[in-house]
Amino acid sequence: MPIVMARDLEETASSSEDEEVVSQEDHPCIMWTGGCRRIPVLVFHAEAILTKDNNMRVIGERYHLSYKIVRTDSRLVRSILTAHGFHEVHPSSTEYNLMWTGSHLKPFLLRTLSEAQKVNHFPRSYELTRKDRLYKNIIRMQHTHGFKAFHILPQTFLLPAEYAEFCNSYSKDRGPWIVKPVASSRGRGVYLINNPNQISLEENILVSRYINNPLLIDDFKFDVRLYVLVTSYDPLVIYLYEEGLARFATVRYDQGAKNIRNQFMHLTNYSVNKKSGDYVSCDDPEVEDYGNKWSMSAMLRYLKQEGRDTTALMAHVEDLIIKTIISAELAIATACKTFVPHRSSCFELYGFDVLIDSTLKPWLLEVNLSPSLACDAPLDLKIKASMISDMFTVVGFVCQDPAQRASARPIYPTFESSRRNPFQKPQVTLTQFLPSFTSRGSCIANLG
């Protein structure tokens, strides 16, 4: 699958430039695209951060590629970019190829992006990453396309607005229920209740039916962190990374009411369980099925050995991902057309947290803005360094000095050249993103 749609060069390069192109033709960090295969695009390699091979830096340094990091601190992103010849510029600089930020950009900043500049967030992506907005978008899709088609969230209520409805449901099923702040992450402010009187209504919160039949491995509850890349909302293009993380609770699961306050039993967030005295880490990156954090592939191998249909499970997970993103597609695509001058300017890495129940049904827990790239264990580095490198390759950084302004003819299609009816039934492709760009599978979301 092509990384970018590129134009032919407007002018023939000089003889000296031709010699340079030939010398770079077989460089492992460059890919040539465009009608005449004359537009260089950078290829990233995760091993570059370990080998510190100067040859990996040559292309980035040759084109003076640069980045800036704003309102966040990601040592992994910085290490990968530096290993490929990028240099860091001041957060206020306007000459950069990539802005990596921990929050959304203001509209006036989005409008200033040149066609060679990229930022790691779409406008209005909070439609997915804020729990209240995600809930409302999923509910809207259930009303439009049927409850069964979008039954990917457990029954949920937004309080205090829907307190009466919640109490009515509680009278029929006393729970337990799980309470979550609408705009928090890493398990902060999350707790279980079995009585409405235990809820504080001082702020907006979500109350969801607790999934009390989770799939267990060795009697421990776990969830799965999946990495999902969106490179465009019009057309909608979604990539699912081939690897993820299974994160385990540190106390064996027990449905008894006396354990309702035990976060180490009921919550699977790493940021919660790492504080437990029972947390077990693994220092060997090649051992992926030991301790409280496994690779997703190790978890799937275990389930397959237990006779579970992991192929069907992952098909349902992909369906969940597609439907979740479709629920916010129109809002985000409209914001892009309003504020973003070039279709290639934005991309987004989402962290999907999914819980699997004992029937192998996946449930969406939340979608994370700026999922953690911390590497607290060797397995983290192994998975996340490869994932970020593959993501940057898929996103497609054209090798262009950011100090040089783009010509009048665009390298990428603009939104104006690719508008479609916003009410048109979306055709969505979801593939696993890999260094070779080979499609490992695709599916179409049919809403009926």
Tell me about this structure.
By secondary structure, this protein is an alpha+beta fold. Among the domains are: 125-152 and 213-383, D-amino Acid Aminotransferase, Chain A, domain 1 (2-Layer Sandwich), CATH 3.30.470; 155-210, Dna Ligase, domain 1, CATH 3.30.1490. It has 13 helices and 18 strands. It has helices spanning 15-24, 48-51, 58-62, 75-83, 107-110, 126-129, 131-145, 163-172, 263-266, 270-273, 296-305, 310-339, 378-395; strands spanning 30-33, 39-42, 66-70, 87-88, 98-101, 118-119, 156-159, 177-181, 191-193, 205-209, 216-217, 220-233, 236-241, 245-248, 293-295, 348-356, 362-369, 429-433. The strands form four sheets. Strands 11, 12, 13, 14, 15, 16, 17 and 18 form an eight-stranded mixed beta sheet that branches. The longest helix has 30 residues, at 310-339. The protein starts with 14 loop residues before the first helix and ends in a 15-residue tail after the last strand. One of its GO terms (biological process) is microtubule cytoskeleton organization. It catalyses: L-glutamyl-[protein] + L-glutamate + ATP = gamma-L-glutamyl-L-glutamyl-[protein] + ADP + phosphate + H(+).
Question: What secondary-structure arrangement, pairings included, does this model have?
Answer:
Blueprint: H1 15-24, E1 30-33, E2 39-42, H2 48-51, H3 58-62, E3 66-70, H4 75-83, E4 87-88, E5 98-101, H5 107-110, E6 118-119, H6 126-129, H7 131-145, E7 156-159, H8 163-172, E8 177-181, E9 191-193, E10 205-209, E11 216-217, E12 220-233, E13 236-241, E14 245-248, H9 263-266, H10 270-273, E15 293-295, H11 296-305, H12 310-339, E16 348-356, E17 362-369, H13 378-395, E18 429-433
Parallel strand pairs: 3-4, 3-5, 5-6, 13-18
Antiparallel strand pairs: 1-2, 7-10, 8-9, 8-10, 11-12, 12-13, 12-14, 12-16, 14-15, 16-17
